[in-house]
From TrEMBL:
NCBIfam families: PRK09289.1 (NF006767), ribE (TIGR00187). The gene is ribE. Catalyzes the dismutation of two molecules of 6,7-dimethyl-8-ribityllumazine, resulting in the formation of riboflavin and 5-amino-6-(D-ribitylamino)uracil. GO terms for molecular function: riboflavin synthase activity. GO terms for biological process: riboflavin biosynthetic process. Pfam families: Lum_binding (PF00677). Residues 1-98, 99-196 form the Lumazine-binding domain. Keywords: Repeat, Riboflavin biosynthesis, Transferase. InterPro entries: ATP_synth_asu-like_sf, Lumazine-bd, Lumazine-bd_dom, Riboflavin_synthase-like_b-brl. This is Riboflavin synthase. Its EC number is 2.5.1.9. Homotrimer.
Amino acid sequence: MFTGLVETLGKVVQIEPIDSGIQFTIQTEWENPDLKLGDSIAINGACMTVTKFSDLGNIFQFYASFKSLELTNLSRLGEGTLVNLERAMALGQRFGGHMVQGHVDGMAKVVSRKQIENEVEEFWVEVPEELRRFFVKKGSVTLDGISLTVVDVKDGNIQLILIPETMQKTNANTWKKDQRLNVEVDVLAKYIENYLAARS
């Protein structure tokens, strides 16, 4: 389980195709390094498993299967690409953001981006048609592993307002028109839909 509060940025330093997928090597700098083999870690919001690490986890590897590559934007990563990183929640820590599973539901597309004031950025993002029923004004969404609030919903697009803190600490500063983002809808919305479907 994750919170959608990105801890740090990582840089893809090696991409190696292997049987049934790709092995990625990431270089980063954790504030409190404690990575272990087998740990779950969200890479742009997709839950992956640490398969190898060195330098206290500041260099680590993970494997993405062809299925994961098909469902997420991990297949679009190149050497030098910045990715959002979050380790799994620790028992007893403060719970910011919202409940994030790291199970990517699909890919959204950046429609527009503009600065509106004092480095505050407005984004409109198109979400997949099959997921649009899960979005409401002031609801939660995870994009590339970032917990965000939906400001408005219009014609299959969601409006987001990102503050300088978010722009500085995540890869949102690199987002551009037509870029694909991993999207995970609020799991509570899924439970509600499932409950109502069962009742009807």
